[in-house]
């Protein structure tokens, strides 16, 4: 008697899970929310504007769960090592997490090697706007990377908690972008 009830509960649970898929990234071609946020580069804080960055070319925007965690440090280091490759493709890089600006200020020197900025989104407004909230741990951003075209739309995205392929995928997506001038 207990076994059929447990089977039905399991079936209902699976059906409910499938009806509410995990948070998905914005889709290719979707307009992205423009934002400004407190950011740090080389330990110095400033106000970052996505609109200003897009006026100069494509932007690689990557979300990460927590500064100074092992995987986030690995990913930041990989982005830092590839900054010149991104620049050669006309792109800039910005990382975003829900960490406070003081934490990110230190992270910008230590893990980002003062090569690119990281922005604080403690309110998770930007994280939610880009569908980057980690569903299983809603206090954190998911590991999700975007290439945003200069016109403000998603050109490519990649979501995976493993930090190893984000840089490679973003570089490949930038290489595939049509070469156009930035909007004026």
TrEMBL record:
Signal peptide range equals: 1-24
One MF term in the entry's GO annotations: thioredoxin peroxidase activity
Q: What are the EC numbers? A: 1.11.1.24
Matching Gene3D superfamilies: Glutaredoxin
For this protein, the record's InterPro entries field holds:
AhpC/TSA, Peroxiredoxin_AhpC-typ, Peroxiredoxin_BCP/PrxQ, Thioredoxin-like_sf, Thioredoxin_domain
Which residues belong to any copy of the Thioredoxin domain? 26-179
This entry carries the following GO cellular component terms, namely:
cytoplasm
Q: Which residues form the active site?
A: 72
Q: Where are the transmembrane segments?
A: none
Catalysed reaction equations from the record: a hydroperoxide + [thioredoxin]-dithiol = an alcohol + [thioredoxin]-disulfide + H2O
Q: What are the alphabetically sorted keywords of the record?
A: Antioxidant, Disulfide bond, Oxidoreductase, Peroxidase, Redox-active center, Signal
Q: Which GO terms describe its biological process?
A: cell redox homeostasis; cellular response to oxidative stress
**Role description:** Thiol-specific peroxidase that catalyzes the reduction of hydrogen peroxide and organic hydroperoxides to water and alcohols, respectively. Plays a role in cell protection against oxidative stress by detoxifying peroxides and as sensor of hydrogen peroxide-mediated signaling events.
The family assignment reads: Belongs to the peroxiredoxin family. BCP/PrxQ subfamily.
Quaternary arrangement and interactors, per the entry? Answer: Monomer.
| Name of the protein this chain belongs to | thioredoxin-dependent peroxiredoxin
């Amino acid at each position: 008697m207990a076994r059929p009830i447990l089977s039905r509960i399991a079936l209902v649970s699976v059906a409910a899970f499938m009806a509410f898929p995990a948070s998905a990234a914005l889709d290719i071609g979707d307009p992205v929310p423009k934002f400004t946020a407190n950011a740090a580069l080389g330990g110095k804080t400033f106000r970052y504007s996505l609109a200003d960055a897009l006026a100069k070319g494509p932007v690689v925007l990557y979300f990460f769960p927590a500064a100074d965690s092992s995987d986030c440090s690995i990913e930041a280091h990989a982005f830092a090592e590839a900054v010149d490759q991104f620049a050669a493709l006309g792109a800039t890089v910005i990382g975003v997490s829900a960490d406070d600006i003081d934490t990110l200020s230190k992270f910008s020197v230590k893990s980002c090697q003062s090569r690119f900025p990281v922005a604080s989104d403690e309110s998770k407004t930007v994280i939610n706007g880009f569908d980057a909230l980690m569903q299983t741990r809603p206090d954190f951003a998911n590991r999700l990377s975007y290439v945003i075209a200069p016109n403000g739309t998603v050109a490519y995205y990649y979501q995976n908690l493993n930090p190893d392929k984000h840089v490679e995928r973003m570089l490949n997506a930038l290489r595939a972008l049509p070469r156009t001038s930035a909007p004026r």
